[in-house]
Specification:
10 strands, mainly beta, six-stranded mixed β-sheet
Length: 113
């Protein structure tokens, strides 16, 4: 099982980024996927969840209306569209299926002017 995140970078406050996660090693379309983030010196935090069909999702309250989670089962990918980014969004972002203990390397997002 492997998760590979990409799409992070440096963005100014108010900017946008689209993160991607490619998964392998399991039947992708059968599992819900989650995005987490870990800011420096803080605990890892849940950000978003999307069900196997892509029709239902949950979003962290503090990013609702700004972040959108989606998936493409044919490509074995999940995405996190992040709009109106704030400095507190600076973190390493990771994706995961809870059925597995594997974590990817994550992708660094830095929101700074």
């Amino acid at each position: 099982v492997q998760f590979v995140e990409s799409g992070g970078g440096l963005v100014q406050p108010g900017g946008s980024l689209r993160l991607s996660c490619t998964a392998s090693g399991f039947i992708f379309g059968t599992l819900a996927l989650k995005w987490y983030r870990q800011a420096p010196g803080k605990e890892r935090e849940f950000v978003a969840r999307i069900d196997p069909t892509g029709r239902r999702n949950d979003i962290l309250d503090s990013v609702k209306g700004r972040f959108i989670v989606s998936r493409d089962n044919a490509k074995r990918m999940t995405f996190l569209q992040m709009n109106s980014l704030k400095p507190e969004g600076t973190a390493v972002y990771l994706c995961k299926a809870d059925e597995y203990t594997t974590w990817g390397q994550g992708t660094q997002v830095t929101v700074d002017s």
